[in-house]
């Protein structure tokens, strides 16, 4: 993907030099293995900082919310779908954006890689599908496809859906993947088993709100859990309040979530936050044939009414 | 100061004996990561661990701590009167705590045990604990303890320092509490090569490859660092979650809440975070730290400048590296600390 990186730098430099954008939002190299940091570049002489590899899983659409500048943004498939959602929801104007589209080949799951080895990883380098993992005094190899983020492994929209230029040829989209295997598994549980499953799932939550804050959809000026007049949700570690937060947040994302995986990636205690949003994505797809962020020309199903909307749930 | 040698064959039995006198806490692997928990009978601390995912500060300052209960039922004679919640102040031992995390409690103590104010909840919990520290032979690449006033064999804040020496532990008793713990464990064999700890310490310190510069922080003009141009760049990627503050062993901020159910209520103290907008919002609706960049700046200014000035005793950080490893967007306190320490307004060429 280093070819992408050169193209990104070239595009950023060109756009800044010609003055068609005020800033470029992309990634710079992180200080840890398998981490890159979202950054902005304002001067063409700084574009050398920009990187692209399999550690760019953070959704950059999150950094566009309500910005007023003219911005060029590096966008993989899911980022571009969140940009579409942002435009539809009036969080950014299309004409303020220059989208540098990146046909994505999946992002690696840092946590999964770390859990495979008992010792500290000092460096990871990649060459196509081959990852080299460096430890103190030894080296191991992995195949990137074996350690993708779960949402990337089942992604069928790797190509950007909206862009002004592309940094590479469009990639072949995956077919035959089961996007909802996890949801089907949970749906098959008995109510008691489901209760236990969600209780275990949420037990490590410390309410840092990294899942919410990493999500481009969560841009409310004051989140319902932060309302104090009146206060809707308790602030303690009471499991009822923790569940309330996660369940309600997921419902607020219904028909909007692009399954970018930012929530799960951000969680410091490894909660599979997508278990909630995936169910709503599945419902949106099955009931409305809807996938969020695929087009600017159609209102999302949950903010429109159609006489033939499914209503079997009304008993 | 006595140094004992503990054959690893005698370790488990000794830990079991201490459970007769202490509630023993230790690092245990749960799901993917280690955390401190109360050890059941025959449950052993995992002395092969690196460090816990989150810091053990919750054992002294729980994320949610009930302080008082009350009733709003006016037919009760004691309605609307706060009644203190009884706390378990029985002796506890934290076995295997890393020196950085034990030292962090001393930094926090400056806040909770100040000459003017003593926080009874924090102090009672802290004083009940015997800290049986576990020196780091193999620090992580993100550890920068030696340049944060701490170190892999740092003794401050510990009652016992354990060092792993192959088939034995060396145990250095540092306080009377430490003597009592070792006696309760029944470990009595004094080491005839106590000096080995010093050699192990030097070996471990030499493995620390990560450093920060802090020497200039105190003398810098506060307003100049505050107004420095690097904050916009530093704060850009921040998503304002509470990961850094909640995983930090030296972040102590809290929020007090009353929660009622029917007529009965409880007054709770919960962790709070300077990353959250709600942390500073006023009753008027005005928020003096309404923007993300202000909150990010506050966190670093507090740890690396205000604290340094107020206590003249180093930075409010022990270099454990948790915030670096856990930050979802890779904001690195080492980078920020060096930026602050090296900042020279005269040399700054601001991107106009």
Describe this structure in words.
By secondary structure, chain A is α/β, with parallel strands linked by helices. Chain A has 2 domains: 1-106 and 157-177, no CATH class; 180-315, no CATH class. Chain A has 10 helices and 9 strands. Chain A has helices at residues 2-17, 77-88, 110-116, 150-153, 181-187, 191-202, 210-214, 239-252, 262-266, 274-288; strands at 23-29, 36-41, 50-51, 71-75, 97-101, 123-127, 130-135, 138-143, 165-166. In chain A, the strands form 2 sheets. In chain A, strands 1, 2, 3, 4, 5 and 9 form a 6-stranded mixed beta sheet that branches. The longest helix of chain A has 16 residues, at 2-17. The model of chain A has no long low-confidence stretch (mean pLDDT 96). By secondary structure, chain B is an alpha/beta fold. Chain B has 2 domains: 3-56 and 86-206, no CATH class; 222-342, no CATH class. In chain B, the strands form 2 sheets. Chain B has a 7-stranded mixed beta sheet with strand order 1-9-8-7-6-2-3. In chain B, helix 1 (11-18) packs across helix 4 and helix 7 crosses helix 9 (292-311). The longest helix of chain B is centred in the C-terminal third of the chain and has 20 residues, at 292-311. Chain B is globular and about 65 Å long. The termini of chain B are far apart. The model of chain B has no long low-confidence stretch (mean pLDDT 96). Chains A and B meet through strand 2 and helix 7 of A and helix 8, strand 10, strand 11 and helix 10 of B.
- Strand portion of chain A: 5-15%
Query: What would the principal axes of the Cα set say about the shape of chain B?
Result: globular
The count of helical stretches of chain B stands at 11
- The overall pLDDT of chain A, averaged over residues, is 96
Helix content of chain A: 25-40%
Number of helices of chain A: 10
Strand content of chain B: 15-25%
Keywords summarizing the entry:
heterodimer; A: 315 residues; alpha/beta; 2 domains; six-stranded mixed beta sheet; three-stranded antiparallel beta sheet; 10 helices; 9 strands; 31% helix; globular; B: 352 residues; seven-stranded mixed beta sheet; four-stranded antiparallel beta sheet; 11 helices
